[in-house]
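Write out the 3D structure for:
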Amino acid sequence: MKVSKRMIITRLSIMVFICFLAILIVTWVFPYAGLSVSKSYTVKLDPIVAKQYDIMLSEYNQIMENSQDHSKTYTIGIAALDIFQEILVVDKVEWKVTEETLEELLFHVSAYREMLLSHAFSESYKVEAKMYLEVAVNAAIELESHITAIQKREGLMRNDLRVLLRNLYGDIGGSFNHFITFYETVHNSAFN
């Protein structure tokens, strides 16, 4: 039984097509899998949450601009504002997350955590402010662990990844909110 050249080309074409189709399916179903081509995922953000974060950043920016305090806490407050503006100011509709995005996010959150920890031991605060600072530090540590968990998990399906990234975006805003509470407590106790 002799196989013709045309039959071999047809079979090879079918196998190449099946491989290409398999890679596309893996890329679609498992965006961060080893065989995935783009290794990115775009999360559709809740417009209400994105707007709330925008308002929160604007209000905190106003607090910082109107502040007469130029202590170490103020300096940390400005640095935190810069970090969270970098992280939270994304497109109001969607957030494209790649491996590089997660690495950059982890870098910023680690720097923020280190900044809070070094600040915690260099200043003395009232009990209430210390409690809020501890909550802010714990939120930063939790945020770091969530980012690392997403990075290390391979084979996440689109739905799982969507849920994890939306939760991560919410945790980022929550972490910033904890810092704002700490800063406002310190700022208000300084003027009372």
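The chain has a mean pLDDT of 81.
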